Amino acid sequence: MAQTDSKVLVLGALAGVAGVSLAVVCYQSFRSRRRGSCPGFQFHRTNEQGYGLTLVDGPGLPSGQAEVLDRLEALIQCVSELKDEMKALKNALPSLQDQVREEFRGREEARRTGSLHRITPTRRKRTAATVAEARATGRSSEEAESEGGYMTALTDSEEDELSDAEERDQEHPVDKLSLLIEQIDSLHQGCESDKRESLNILLEQREEFGQNSTFLWRLTRAYCDVHDISLTLEEKKTYAETGKKVGEEAVSLNPTCAESHQWYAIMCGIMAEYDTIQNKIKNGYVFKDHLDKAIELKPQDPLSYYLLGRWCYAVSQLSWIERKVASTLFGEPPSATVEDALKNFLKVEELHPAYSKLNYVFLAKCYKDLGQCEKAKKMCQAACSMSAESKENEEAQKELSLLCPALGV
Fold this sequence. Notes:
Elements: H1 2-34, E1 41-45, E2 51-55, H2 63-117, H3 121-137, H4 141-154, H5 156-171, H6 176-188, H7 192-209, H8 213-229, H9 233-253, H10 258-271, H11 277-297, H12 302-316, H13 320-330, H14 338-351, H15 357-369, H16 373-384, H17 391-407
Antiparallel strand pairs: 1-2
């Protein structure tokens, strides 16, 4: 294709020059016929390929004809220069294709060299595995190298795609926060030492990510985890107070984050264990408001329904004196029934069957309080079938030890 284009270009240029030369020859013939009428000028050779006009003795020409002849002399000079340029171009065209080839080959070599410097870890592993396999099977290093080279040759067409992908990865590096969150969520599911490590890691990274609600609600959750596994009352209260402050900060930073509302509500419920009666009732209202908000923002989260069920059941069990105190302090006592609690615990089971041992325990309690003993027994049996590995399940087991004898299970 490149050779055909070059030939067409040369032929076209030569045809153009031939046409201009023919025009000059015609003009010379015409000038020879008119020489007698224009004795003031004559043609002469200015160089090997050009022509010129020279004033000679004879009668002068009218000014209009002299101007025309001046312009024709300039035109002939331009044609002469054009012929020189076309001759140089004709001589250069045969080597032009080779020059283009060499330049293209140089760029291709540079691109392949760059690709080799950016070999991906996967390909390095494959190459290393090939060499290791060669050693294991007794093949020589030359054979291994040959196979490695063959594999590279087969994947040369893929190098551009790999390089482009790596460049995109460099433009969009792996999000550090996402990796941190993945690590923290994994530690949250672990043992007690994992939970403490999770809190320590989050505290170390707080300066960098402290303005991110996703980070802050996980820090609140970490304080809750460490509160639960702490042994002394002083430690528990300290973690609860600090966790509540962090949870409040997370909610203020992003009021549309369901988890921030959820874990702030949990910390308010925990703080109720260490506050005065007035603050305990106040935290109860705050607990309910933020749970409602969490459910509004994320209606498919079973944990929020479980917590709301616990709140409803606790309020339904308030004594007359406690309700009177709440009414005196806040004008209207919190209101909820066992039916409300049962509705939320059933919602948990609907969203996540066998969600937790404690959910079955509170379902059994609700059915027992409502006089539905057969359903209560079934819930107790379901709870007993679940293991008691976590601290929460240990609490559930204690509840079952009291509930089962009462139901005759």
